[in-house]
């Protein structure tokens, strides 16, 4: 018989990963309202913005304002692509930083115009400096399962990249099914391998829901020992450099599933749905707010 954990930590990525691919401009005011509503629902860890070039990701142009004006509650993570982004993030007052690299060379070249090896060479001194200053460092591993350009990724390549980051002292690995092509067996096998080989680092699973297997993949990762998951309120998300990738698995769906399995998240589902209702009118992707009533009934 298998056993599930008593508690799971949700890392909300809606304000960053959820909105980065949104074509409709979302105002800073509405982003902050969304973030604060998510905090009110009990979310303690969140990717709030990204210090990337506004030329490539216009939606994140207000990163400095977001960091300075957001309520200081829990761990607030900002994504940074390079040393310049890290410098901007620290100047704004960020104390938790995420870096990213793709296992796939092709994806990495499309994303930041560098090979995986070149990205790692650039990131090594950046991570060393961040750790010297006591900054929480999260390494996001893109295309850990499949790549839109190269197809299936060898798990040995994903493991090798994760081990390299772990050896550099990162605090967390966020291992992503970037285009949502993984299946539950692959999820279980990869996370069992990673947990066995790299037990010293916080292990986090990041699933997109392209083929509607996000919840199944999360369940499989749970069985493999993962207790930290990236999710996006309203199922928002996508990647500008990963053709075909849809949104992340929806936070409200994950919380609902976990609570029904008696796994605690510390999140109020009704307040979480209220947060989604706040952002829903401001994004182009339709969000089925009619489902929220079902969550309310389920909690009654």
Brief descriptors of the model:
single chain, 300 residues, alpha/beta, 8-stranded parallel barrel, 12 helices, 16% strand
Describe the structure concisely.
By secondary structure, the chain is α/β, with parallel strands linked by helices. It has twelve helices and ten strands.
State the major sheet: 8 strands, parallel, barrel
Question: In what order do the strands lie side by side in the largest sheet?
Answer: 1-2-3-4-5-8-9-10
DSSP strand tally: 10
Distance between the termini: 31 Å
Assess the beta-strand content as a share of residues.
Answer: 15-25%
Share of helical residues = 40-55%
Overall morphology: globular
Number of helices: 12
What is the structural class?
Answer: alpha/beta
Average pLDDT number = 92
**What Rg do the Cα atoms give?**
18 Å
Order of helices and strands: EHHEHEHEHHEEEHEHEHEHHH
- Uncertain residue segments: none
Write the layout of secondary structure elements.
Blueprint: E1 9-12, H1 14-18, H2 28-40, E2 45-50, H3 63-69, E3 75-79, H4 83-92, E4 96-102, H5 105-112, H6 116-132, E5 136-142, E6 146-147, E7 151-152, H7 155-167, E8 172-177, H8 184-197, E9 202-207, H9 214-223, E10 228-231, H10 251-260, H11 269-279, H12 291-299
Helix pairs in contact: 2-11, 7-8, 8-9
Describe the 3D structure:
There is one protein chain. The protein has 300 residues and is of the alpha/beta class. 42% of the residues lie in helices and 16% in strands. It contains twelve helices and ten strands. The strands form two sheets. The chain has an eight-stranded parallel β-barrel, surrounded by eight helices. A two-stranded antiparallel ribbon has the order 6-7. The longest helix is centred in the middle third of the chain and has 17 residues, at 116-132. The protein is globular, with a radius of gyration of 18 Å. The two termini are 31 Å apart. The model has no long low-confidence stretch (mean pLDDT 92).
């Amino acid at each position: 018989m298998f056993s599930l954990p008593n508690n799971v930590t949700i890392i909300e990525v809606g304000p960053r990963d959820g909105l980065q691919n949104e074509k409709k401009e979302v105002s800073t005011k509405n982003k902050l309202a969304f973030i604060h509503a998510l905090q009110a629902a009990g979310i303690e860890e969140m990717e709030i913005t990204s210090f990337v070039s506004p030329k490539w990701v216009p939606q994140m142009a207000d990163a400095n304002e977001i960091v300075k004006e957001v309520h200081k509650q829990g761990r607030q993570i900002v994504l940074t692509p390079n040393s310049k982004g890290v410098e901007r993030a620290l100047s704004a007052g960020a104390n938790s930083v995420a870096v990213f690299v793709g296992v796939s060379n092709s994806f990495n070249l499309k994303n930041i115009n560098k090979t995986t090896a070149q990205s790692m060479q650039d990131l090594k001194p950046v991570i060393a400096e961040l750790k010297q200053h006591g900054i929480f460092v999260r390494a996001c591993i893109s295309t850990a399962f499949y790549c839109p350009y190269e197809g299936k990724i060898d798990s040995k390549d994903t493991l090798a990249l994760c081990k390299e980051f772990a050896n550099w002292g990162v605090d967390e690995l966020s291992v992503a099914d970037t285009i949502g092509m993984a299946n539950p067996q692959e999820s279980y096998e990869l996370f069992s391998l990673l947990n066995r080989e790299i037990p010293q680092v916080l292990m986090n699973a990041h699933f997109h829901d392209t083929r509607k297997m996000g919840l199944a993949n999360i369940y499989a990762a749970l069985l493999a020992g993962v207790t930290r998951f990236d999710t996006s309120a309203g199922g928002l998300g996508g990647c500008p450099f990963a053709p075909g990738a849809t949104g992340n698995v929806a936070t409200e769906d994950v919380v609902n599933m976990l609570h029904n399995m008696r796994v605690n998240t510390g999140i109020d589902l009704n307040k979480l749905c209220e947060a989604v209702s706040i952002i829903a009118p401001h994004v182009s992707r339709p969000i089925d707010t009619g489902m929220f009533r079902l969550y309310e009934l389920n909690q009654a």
